[in-house]
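B., you asked whether I could sanity-check this one before it goes into the benchmark set. Here's the sequence:
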Amino acid sequence: MQIMSGRSARGWLAGASMLGLCMGMATTAYAQEGAALEEVVVTAQKRSERLQDVPLSVAVVSGTNLERLHISSPDDLPMVSPNVSFTASSNTRGQGLSIRGVGTLNFSDGVEPSVSTVIDGVVLGRQAMSVFELIDIERVEILRGPQGTLFGKNSSAGVLNIVTEAPRQTLGGKVEASYASLNETKLRGSVTGPLSDTLSARLTGYYTTRDGYVTNVYNGKKLNDQNQWGVRGKILWTPTEATSVTFIGDYSKIDRNCCAPTSISVSPTATGAARLALMGPVVPGRDNNQTNIDGLYYLKQDTSGLSVQVDHEIGDHTLTSITAYRQFQVRDNNDPDLLPVNLFNLNNADQKQSQFSQELRLTSPQGKPIEYVVGLYYFGQDLDTVTMLQGRYSLASNVIAGSVIDRGIETKNAAVFGQLTGHVTDQFSVIVGARYTSEKLDARFMRTNLPGLPSAPVGVGGPPLNTNDLKSDEAKLSYRLGVQYDINDDAMAYASYAKGFKGGAINLLNTLTQSLVTGGGYLVPPEIPTNYEAGVRLSLFERRAQLNLTAFLTDFDGFQTTAFDPNANANILTSAGKLRSKGIEVEALASPVVGLTLSANVAYTDATFREFPNGPCYPGQALVDPACRNVNGTYIQDLAGKNLNNAPEWAYTLGVNYQRPIADTGFTGLFNLGYVYRDKVNFGLSQDPQTVQKAYGLVNLNLGVQTQDQRWKVSVFAKNLLDQRFSNGIFAATLDSGGPLAKAGYSQMVTESARRSVGISLNTTF
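And here's what the prediction gave me:
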């Protein structure tokens, strides 16, 4: 199959050059004094295994590397894993992660993400719950491709598996304080130790604050700031040698003036000219960091959870039970008209979620002719949201209109799963896994007018609607078949075929209509991925270097997505039909001499629609492109062969990490240099040329010294050293689009990563 286009040669050559540099330095240093790479253990197959022995595409980032690179949240993971992408939103409900170009990014309460986030064995039911500090982390495992057999819930595109540090029987801890640009202040710490001979505990906490980087000229207020804190406690009880019980509790709070977009352009119409006049000193453009709004931007979120994990040895088998309860509440508002007049000032939501999950599994011992994991899983979730909309919605209108949308959805997911590995010979193994999942959704939707006001327009709300019988009931078998060949202790090859499953979705967007309810169009079919994958895992030069190669091809049937529909001037929840993501992943790591580590991670991804006949047009497309056609009053286009939105074709990360004792000083010098490259992407599903983000590269630098006993460390760092500006989202501006027959104005989402940040940090370990 052809997976590389000529226009990608520059990205390929750069990645290949760094890969060659890593391998070349490892080769030339082979005869020198060196050090074997640290062995990495993962639980990607629900058992502890050496990473190089796992027949899956897994990227691992240790807690040490997270601290070294100053990565503190999941949305920073694209900086270390090139096949991960992050899309920003005006609130946590709409943002999310993609793997291999694929992810579900939307505001609908009735659809769940395609990339699952799992913390200490507990699946998070909503993408808003994945907004937290990566603190006191043992490792982050990024499982690429469908993981439905063992992880099941929300994993049709991949899994983010986060493992936090465990309590220890020896007293110890660490504290970090840092200060950086925009008055960013971080305090982070943890302490662990024994409570008795059978009890140990660990307590972790953090506090982060930062000024905003968008100025509201209306009142001088800084927007898009940071203000959050949280705690996590873990208790480990080992009543016998055969039994261990881990109790985990956590709480976090976010209180931000966030998340405001900035204007890139206004529509070339009389309305656009009027908008421009109202913006005052704000100059639209890609470098614009100002806005002029009279409404509020705020984001307040409370998240908490409790879990109990019991591991009990029954002979040479291990029985594991994970029982968990989690909840969150998020309250947010944004003023998307970006003007100092009340066009759409009230656009808020109050969302409450609670979930209960129970996993029970039996794991056989390793090293036997047959190894297996079997289990049962249950997940129940309640989600309730009240949204209020109010404004004029047009510069030509003086009529205030508004709606209240009260909706809720209940999810019940139950599954039985298992995976068996048969070692046919000492070198050749066969892998068979399956999961049978039943998922039921039961939703309600009620839209009423705000007291004394007419309905909000159809594009943002609509006339009153009350329905309580929105249901989805799906059951599906997902499975995985694979073979693994251990060439020797340092080389392994594998190939696998997997069929995944993500249950159906219910359209609960503000713009739900009676016709969709009556005709059954509120129900979006299940998302079914089929994945073909082959890989090689190599340890080289007495394990001073590693080279992992993976090729993949994944077909999605019924890909669930949200698309902007210019006909309704609103976002819609839809099934895109067929989607294909294919590519190659290369990961190289080398330690040619003691203290020096080189890394190169390269991802080539071609994510395109194979079938999407009724795709949305972009604003103004019908004026210039005959592919956008009028079908019974609706403008649509065939998106077959077009690229998936926010899916870079080339992405890579390059790194150099060096530590060297400073003679006769008792200190060790620290040096870390990283480069992150992201190919150009189109944030618009409709292929709008105005929503393209050009390719960019980021340089990150860290310099420091630490005592040779590693108890004290001070470092200075620069993230985005060259001050490269880029967007994490570009979209047609709310209320500045006249549909497919009129061009639009555009807005963008930017994060603090899109500007240089320089800081200093102090760490102590005891």
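One thing to flag: The chain is about 5% helix and 55% strand. Otherwise nothing jumped out at me.
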